[in-house]
Automatic annotation (TrEMBL):
InterPro entries: AKR2_Oxidoreductase, NAD(P)_OxRdtase_dom_sf, NADP_OxRdtase_dom. It comes from the Bacteria. This is MxcA. Residues 47-300 form the NADP-dependent oxidoreductase domain. Pfam families: Aldo_ket_red (PF00248). Gene3D superfamilies: NADP-dependent oxidoreductase domain (3.20.20.100). CDD domains: AKR_unchar (cd19098). Signal peptide: none annotated. The gene is mxcA.
Amino acid sequence: MPHTLGNSGPAGTSLGLGLAALGRPGYITLGRAGDMGPDRSVQALEHRAHEVLDAAYHAGVRYFDAARSYGRAEDFLASWLASRGIKPGEVVVGSKWGYTYTADWNVDAERHEVKDHSVSTLRRQYAESRARLGAHLGLYQIHSATFESGVLDDALVLKELARLRENGLRVGLSLSGPQQAAVLRRALDIRVDGRPLFSCVQATWNVLERSVGSALAEAHASGWGVILKEVVANGRLGPRDEHPALHPFRALAAEQKTAPDVLAMAAALAQPWASIVLSGAATVAQLNSHLHALTLPYDEALDTCLRGMAEAPQVYWTTRSALPWN
């Protein structure tokens, strides 16, 4: 499956569901405190996750994305898969390694996750992911690969990932930060035992941050799966952000008679090199809103208008780093 990642469900949807906002009590999505309500117990969040997963599955979503650092996201996904009797191969499950969740279910924790791209962390977290997800796990990704972490130059890590690849697991990487395109182009050149190591990339692409687009097109042309994340820019492109700088975007959404988050999702879904566009919905209502993007009319004129709204990568990532956990 070079380009497809679970987008052949009943609705043929190229929408996937990311569990970053569903597996832990705190995240950096704007207005998330209102989404979660007062009960953020493990049991309450598992119930909420199952509700959103049910709605996604019934809408035809077949790609589900988690990570070791998303609190209990893998546990919630595993319990949902088991309780619904979903067999391996009926959905595609991806997860990630490289960050360890450290907040201990506390929204106000000083640090929510710790990054470590060592081979020992890879081995430990892969065992943890496999223990939870079993044969459902089809894609394992480096979480936020960067030049600074040195992960793409670590021979031991690359050899271990190649071993997982040889055992039938698809290996990929996710990206973050203003150097996404350069990191991806470096990854495209990595070969182990004469074969390309990676076959999938997950990157931040949205109306405000388009800088990785050309590199993603290159990855797609090379046969990689391409997954887009943070399409609503952690809520900045949703209905709650009233920052004056985003007024033109909200006005354009109003002209299309749709919500801002729907327009943001539609822009990502329209990219010809995108295999899967992730919804980061924390509620069924948010998911249902994102699903409307699948049928929103989208043409070159609309895309041209949206292109003028992009921010410089450094500006975008500086703004993102200042978003509060809530």
